[in-house]
Amino acid sequence: MKKVSIIMGIYNCENTLVESIHSIINQTYQNWELIMCDDGSVDSTFELASEFVERDRRIKLIKNTHNEGLAKTLNHCLEYCTGDYIMRHDSDDIMVENRMEKQVDYMIHHPCDACGSGAYLFDDEGVWGTRQPEREPGKNIMLVSTPFIHPTVMMKRERLAEVAGYTDNKITKQRLEDYDLWLKFYERNFILHNIQEPLIYFREDKNSYRRKMNKFRVAETIARLDACKRLKIPYMKRLLALKPLLLVCIPKKGLRRYHIWQATRKSVQAK
């Protein structure tokens, strides 16, 4: 039976961590280990995580000496992984009960190096939409989006080692550590798939677009243009990489309507 190593960066998440860990413990697939790395929390996150370590020896807890950011934190987790597959999960998200079982089975029976899924979008009021990436996303997806919802991904451990894990630099610190990882995957012609159903509850409020400030849009554009160059995408298509800058010009009310419409439209289609 394949072993799954779940890597989770935790930071000031005392209000969501317990439910998130319980969703792992209650999985139908039980051959797993959870490696959590506390990234300098100042609330009770570390203490709550420590309680789970005492109760379940499959759970490991490490700690950064100070706040390092997600890329370094996840790489720190990778140093302790012993599984065949590496699975991402975030401290404010919840796994569907058979998420792990479905992804392990998919990875065994399909020729892919990484496997993601769709996600239910939820906030404090409940589920309000879904998001579903393409079944077999090609490299051109990097022009306007990403192939995966980051915390849904399961990857072959040796493939992740081949690209030396997550890159930590000025650009990836702008919440682009996953985008850079997928770029490295495409550069090596790894095969990427998405299961066509939601396997996690992804915490995202309807106003999440507000958190993407102008400096993030600029960093995102730089990252996309770099991806175009490295993946040798035709010059005419590269104009699509400027999408983040165009979003800066759209009124926030318009962005909110589009954000909600897109998620609820896909929710209807998924039923």
Descriptive report:
The protein is an alpha/beta fold and 271 residues long. It has one domain: Spore Coat Polysaccharide Biosynthesis Protein SpsA, Chain A (Alpha-Beta Complex), CATH 3.90.550. The chain has 9 helices and 9 strands. Strands 1, 2, 3, 4, 5, 6, 7, 8 and 9 form a 9-stranded mixed β-sheet that branches. Strand 2, helix 2 and strand 3 form a beta-alpha-beta unit. The longest helix is centred in the C-terminal third of the chain and has 19 residues, at 252-270.
CATH architecture: Alpha-Beta Complex
Number of strands: 9
CATH classification, class level? Alpha Beta
- Radius of gyration over alpha carbons? 18 Å
Query: Rough shape?
Result: globular
CATH superfamily: Spore Coat Polysaccharide Biosynthesis Protein SpsA, Chain A
Helix content: 25-40%
Helix/strand/pairing class, anyone? alpha/beta
Determine the number of helices (DSSP H or I, runs of at least 4 residues): 9
Write the layout of secondary structure elements.
Layout: E1 4-10, H1 17-25, E2 32-38, H2 45-55, E3 59-63, H3 70-78, E4 85-88, E5 94-95, H4 99-109, E6 114-123, E7 126-131, E8 154-156, H5 157-162, H6 177-187, E9 192-203, H7 214-230, H8 243-248, H9 252-270
Parallel strand pairs: 1-2, 1-4, 2-3, 6-9
Antiparallel strand pairs: 4-8, 5-9, 6-7, 6-8
